[in-house]
Amino acid sequence: MKNQQEILLESGTNELEIIQFKINNHIFGINVLKVKEIILPSPTTPIPHSHPYLLGIVQLRGEVLPVVSLERALGMERESERDSSQDKFIVTEFNSKQVVFHVHNVDRILRISWDKIEKPSNLYALDSSNVIGVIKEKDEMILMLDFEKIMVDINPEAGIHPSKLTKIENSMRREKRLIVVEDSPLLRQLLGETLTVAGYEQIEFFENGRDALNHLESLVQEGKDILKEVQLVITDIEMPQMDGHHLTRRLKENPHLSGLPIIIFSSLITEDLFHRGQVLGAVDQIAKPEIDKLVAKIDQYIL
Questions:
Q1: How many Å apart are CA 279 and CA 23, to the nearest integer?
Q2: CATH of domain 2-156
Q3: pLDDT at 190
Q4: Where does 159-302 sit in CATH, by number?
């Protein structure tokens, strides 16, 4: 799996591989880059008074990890007659933490382009929804889940919060214009609130790399001085239509946009993957939810 990950991220091809799994016959997907391994379920130790999504904890290779029921997290009713013989634990790592998700079946690995992932309809696009993308694969609909939001629902303190920063009156920050590319409505809101507390008030948000790239290219076509219009781009990696790595590559290939500093702010920043962003031209990479480090890096590159 690691070799395939390296090929996909080395070139910024706007492709990904997903692991397709089921909960009560509904089909979902998770980015392979979030997955460490898939194992058979083992007994969990319940924790009194814990969040209802948590089944308990399990020890795996000397580490104690939380086990989350995706059935509960998605608000699905438990099927009493369901055959549990195909159940699996998906061991994940993102936001610098390991979490185990209990699913009902793991089907296959599917390689697709990000531009095949559509924005959810209004039915799924509510702030309370855990669905961030839809893949139409033959006669099936695969729903991509917002695992970061699920974990924030369980532990709000693990998310991005203005309280993690001290309000600073800085006229230089107020003058700077930032573009933030993030597909999660919840994280766009939290980033907006937090960066505003930090003093960065001129922020333009885009929900995928394609929209951000189109906007920047339109500024070039209008004859605008890009570095006066925008001082820095912050981008997630996982986004429908165009991911953050491909966006970074496209910006750096455009002579009119290549001078824009780009910071990748993602749950997928690990030691194994860090140098991929460097190769593509990002000036820095910060793991979510370390907002204080993100603000420090913004200051470093544009103040």
A1: 38
A2: 2.40.50.180
A3: 86
A4: 3.40.50.2300
